[in-house]
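Help! Submission page says 'invalid entity' but I think these are all valid:
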Amino acid sequence: MTTFKVHVRVVPRAGLLDPQGQAVEHALTALGFAEASGVRVGKAIELAVKADSKAAAEARARAMCDKLLANPVTEDYLVEVEG
Amino acid sequence: MTTFKVHVRVVPRAGLLDPQGQAVEHALTALGFAEASGVRVGKAIELAVKADSKAAAEARARAMCDKLLANPVTEDYLVEVEG
């Protein structure tokens, strides 16, 4: 058993309204960052997963996303396993 | 001017209490994911940045983090520029 560091990124699906992202984009423009566009705000989750292999850790992390971390109707997720 | 896709990850600083991360960890344990530990929950921000170079896009994204996206007292951020 090895402990793998896993990074999960959960973002609103393309095409779905993202009011938080729009608010951040307006604030950036007001602060002088006119070069920023298409802002989407989601969740970044970091965790340690004990598993026999990197592939097993990724599979378990994906299962966690499907069951709890992401809403499959409105969100997409991306799982990265370190090491 | 090129448009670069930028991924920003903002997470609570190590050592600081993260109640949302603890809640997620308890929920994962309750759902049978006992192999998960050290859960930290932060923000994942995606945006497009118009800049002359990849380095310039990263510098502007870091300025956005310092001014708006992250709280320098309680959060750390990581900027990745695609392409």
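Support: the input was valid. A stray whitespace character was the problem, and the output above is from the cleaned input. The mean pLDDT of chain A is 96.
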